[in-house]
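Duplicate of earlier report; Nuclear pore protein input re-posted below.
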Amino acid sequence: MPSVEDKALVGGTKSQLKELLVSSRNLPKTLTDIGPIHLGLSAIQRKAHNLRKYKDDNQRYTRAHYLLAGSGISAEEIETDLLEISVPQTLDVAMGQKNYAELNNGIDTYIESKKEENILAAIEQSLTMAAKDFDAYVAQNISMDWNQRKKELRESFDIILNGTSQEPSNELVEYTQFGNASKKFKSDPNLTWSVNKPILANRVEFNDVEVSSTPTNVLNPSVSYAMRQKFEEYAQAIYELNAARQNNKPYELTNVFAQITKQANDIKSRQLYETWKILYHLVDFNEPAAFQERKFVKGHDSEVLDSFEAIALRKRIIERSRSYLEQQFMDYIDSIYIRLSNKEESKPNAPETPIVDNITKVKLFVEHRYKKEDTWKIQNLLFINGLPIWAIIFYLLRAGCLDDALNLTLKNSDSFTKVERSFPTFLKAYVNSSDRGFNQELHGRLINEFNQFFKHMNKDADPFRYAVYKLISRCELSRKNLPFITLSVEDWLWVHFTLCREGTNDDDPIYERYSLLDLQKTVLKLGPDNFNGSFNNPLYLQTLIFTGLYEHAVQYFYSISEIDSVHLAIALYYCGILRSTSDKNNTTQLLTYRGERNIPEINFARLIGTYTRTFKISDPRVAVEYLILICLGGDLPGDRGKEQIDLGLSSIRELVLETREFSLLLGKIDREGFRVPGIIEERKNLLHLPDKESFLRKITEQAAIKADDEGRVFDSLLLYQLSENYDTVISLINKLLGDLLASTDLETAIDTPAERAAEGSIIALAERLMKQYNSSTEISGKVLLKHRETCSLLLKMVECRDLFVKQEWEKALKQIGQLDMLPIVAGVNVAAARSKVEVFNSYDESVAKNVPDLLVMTLTCIAQLTYQLTSSEFNGLVKSDKIKYLKEVSRNCMLYAGILQYKMPRETYSMLVSLESML
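Output:
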């Protein structure tokens, strides 16, 4: 039995061990100054070398040297003699040393291990570089927004469910014959690419626009036949517009768009049709200066509010909007008069309706609106000679019948009360004035009379008398409403346009100032709800157009109808009354603001690019016609105009690379190697490209550079060919041929006959291009002689490789000799080897990197031919001379390789040594 002391000792030991275990677990897992336990072969070799290096060599002598000294042998002298022995570092086979065969196995093993080591190092380096390049490419070009991708997928599925085809029909005879026609060099520093944010986005969700959930409001020609027909009609109109612009002819774009919209009868189309009519009235294509392109850009895009052009445009907007509303109201009165007259004519024995004047029509309208069963709805109307004179004058002014209002006033002037005696004078001056104004004296009298008799409006007074005085006098502008008169939205707008004045002097009192800019602020403050009170007749879009808020109109209507909003923006941009943003990286806002005054702008380039997303692949020609319109903004002053041109050209290049419709868009190459222009070049003047050279440099060549950067080799070749940059074409061909030769194993064919006959064969393409270029003096003059010689040399190397793979050793060696790249001469000739080395330094990289393989092919051919000769039963002088010649050629090649030893892979030189040893 253990004692109590023993138990205590055991318990204490256990507790100590437990504490030690816990402490050990708290020790650090890794230490930076302690190396790993598991070592690789290279690490073990390095450590062994270090151990040998630090070994104490002072005690290298043992007791054996005493025994040797006793026999008369001095260990120190022997060591000295051994150190004086010079051991040769190379083995010369030509000297016939017999011990090379004994060492051959060791050398072969060493060479094999070094070869494997170099291969593994090269593979590891290639993988590392590829991973770095891929990471850099991803970081530079891809910004992954998964929510955006999810929306795009949903929209794609929605398109598939609503219709599988997105291609418009082939019904447009003159233009839209839809369908496909065909399936690192320094770039221009003045040209920019939208790398991270391309213009031709598949789908852009503008954050400031509410996305419509109605399929017909989002562009998709496959949704319905009506949508498809509208798409084609719009496309036809855009084509005709660009054709007219190219020929410097006018084109009534708004009228054409109005006719397209007129065919539909839905609420959206009706309000858009009215909008087109408003714009047509504003632009007035019937003016003598019929060329309307960018007509108002100086006034609308001016940052100076009081510039002559800006004031003139605002005056025009006020006058044209007011006159349109007046004519619209007169048409409404005519329709009521005709309707009421038809009722009277339908009665039996009714007299024939005579032609009546505007006063009679307005009188009938007033009675129809305010009189019911011989009772007037407004009890305090003032009557003169049985007429509600002030109501009729008000509505004559509302209908734009100023002369009729004056005639009615003068006819009844004697019947006006004492306080109204001056009114005919005021109205006459108002009607005869070009800007509906007064001279200073008359205006002062009018204001005094208004303030004295009419300012304090009450329910017992005639509301129309107050309204007429207020409108012609522009008094009390702080209160712009007309009490006790029910106004429609159109009436409200007309009242405000009547009160607006532009070009007022700074000396004018503040209470007399009310401009179009003030009206615009009021409209934006009220918002769409106050103008869309009637579901059957929403008027907010028209109100925005009336008041010159064109950018806000495009933004507002985009959520209602994308296709119509885009074409509204095009019409406004064409007329010069739409500002476009120059912010290339803004992809989230349709409406942006510029400068301290927050000038509104539309992201026009991205709007057009987004619109083309559904048909840019199926109908690239249509997409081109739309993208050309981006360059309309090239007339803007300073850098802003250049930025718009760059955006347009960038979008064209994106379309070219994305659709790959090179023949259709850029042209094609005929059998002689010359370029046939494509549809983009036909419109080059609309892209602000004055000549063919600028088109080739800014469109085709830049697209080629982009394709080359993206690794699209054949696309870049074709694009460089189309840009007539023939020297670059040959340079690329040389690079491709050099890479092809260097990357193909010597024992396998470069390609099969079927592959070489195919369209994608680099070798066949190089042969065809060299034949075309050499046959044309014009083209060959544009290609550097060195590049042509390099291409010819590479094609001959391809022939050598073909013979080598077929094991036709003698023909292959002869073909290699004809290249005149290696010292294939009789007799050991060091001078010949050195001269070829000097030529090597002038080779293009595509040729130089294939010289090592050419040496291997040469020595392999020599080794095979030597083996055949030595194995043959034939003996004679010719045989010995042939073998001697082959060995001399081999020796010259090895001299050449020895000089270039450090310019070729180590394993290649080792292979050459091994091949020579076989001779």
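The first helix runs from residue 4 to 25.

Merging into the original ticket.
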